[in-house]
Amino acid sequence: DGGITQSPKYLFRKEGQNVTLSCEQNLNHDAMYWYRQDPGQGLRLIYYSQIVNDFQKGDIAEGYSVSREKKESFPLTVTSAQKNPTAFYLCASSIEPDRGTQYFGPGTRLTVL
Amino acid sequence: EDQVTQSPEALRLQEGESSSLNCSYTVSGLRGLFWYRQDPGKGPEFLFTLYSAGEEKEKERLKATLTKKESFLHITAPKPEDSATYLCAVQAGAGGTSYGKLTFGQGTILTVHP
């Protein structure tokens, strides 16, 4: 089955730690995105990548980093510089870099202890 | 700046009671308007894409329509399994942000009672 997988489903982080969230897709999509979802707010774009080895900051990139070494993988690192990292993180992909439907993974819930 | 506002924030219906959800938007050249369904603790599930005013799309009990300023998601004879949060998002086509960014509304929480 084609789709987007995210792992882990739940992640707990201590203050001062960096953590990495995994996102893999087997849809052969060029573009991948990371969003953050907080209660009562719309999804907000953290980073996006239109092609392998290229990525750009979204609206709320501070305290986050990404890499895109393979077409199917787009991991997100939440660094200790992110002041309020507790949230639901969603990865998405689309077949074209600048348009079209984005399909979402199941999400990772990150909680800072 | 692109903006999306959804109303109402929450909607409670009885099973079989039809209603509509609203999505008002301002965007620099609409490339597409998207509706998603999201269940608690899960990722959004794609429902519809609308591209131009006057367009309509249907899927089972759901029908999405689009004007130049807003979109409606009509739910006909809803069932309890239609309970979810419905998200609306727009994708702009004009002005330098042509990287596929979606601007989301806050969502409408729909509860359908049996």
Summarize the structure.
The complex is a heterodimer of chains A (113) and B (114). Chain A has strands at 4-7, 10-13, 19-25, 31-37, 44-51, 54-57, 64-66, 76-78, 87-94, 103-104, 108-112.
Describe this protein's structure.
The complex is a heterodimer of chains A (113) and B (114). By secondary structure, chain A is mostly beta strands. In chain A, 0% of the residues lie in helices and 49% in strands. In chain A, strands 2, 4, 5, 6, 9, 10 and 11 form a 7-stranded mixed sheet that branches. Chain A has a 4-stranded antiparallel sheet with strand order 1-3-8-7, with no helix packed on it. Chain A starts with a strand and ends with a strand. The relative contact order of chain A is 0.33. Chain B is built from no helices and 11 strands. In chain B, strands 2, 4, 5, 9, 10 and 11 form a 6-stranded mixed sheet that branches. A 5-stranded antiparallel sheet of chain B has the order 1-3-8-7-6, with no helix packed on it. The mean pLDDT of chain B is 93. Classes of the chains: A mainly beta (113), B mainly beta (114). At the A-B interface, β5 and β10 of A face β4, β5, β9 and β10 of B.
Secondary-structure content class of chain B: mainly beta
What's the order of the H and E elements of chain B? EEEEEEEEEEE
Number-wise, the strands of chain A total: 11
Distance between the termini of chain B: 41 Å
Going by helix content, strand content and strand pairing, the class of chain A is: mainly beta
Overall radius of gyration of chain A: 13 Å
Measured on Cα atoms, how large is the radius of gyration of chain B?
Answer: 14 Å
Strand content of chain B: over 45%
Helices and strands of chain A, in order, run as EEEEEEEEEEE
Name the overall outline of chain B.
Answer: globular
> How many beta-strand elements of chain B?
11
Proportion of beta-strand residues of chain A: over 45%
If helices are DSSP runs of H or I spanning 4 or more residues, what is the number of helices of chain A? 0
The number of helices of chain B is: 0
